[in-house]
Amino acid sequence: MKKKIHPKYDLKTKATCACGAVFEVGSTLPEIKVEICSQCHPFYTGNEKILDTAGRVERFNKRRAASPKAKK
Description:
The protein is an alpha+beta fold. The protein has one domain (10-71): Rhinovirus 14, subunit 4 (Irregular), CATH 4.10.80. The chain is built from three helices and three strands. A three-stranded mixed beta sheet has the order 2-1-3, with no helix packed on it. The termini are far apart.
């Protein structure tokens, strides 16, 4: 590797999640902010959240029930 052309790699960079969890990771950045991590992601926690904004599921089911195919 050539000298003095690579950024400094720090093994103790703090990665902060929106949920408040803080991890130490290796990076060339001094600080990393993430929106989701293993402590708040539904796959890891097992808590799945279904967000139904403005009744989209109900509207879909209503249109589906009113369709000509569903009436047959």
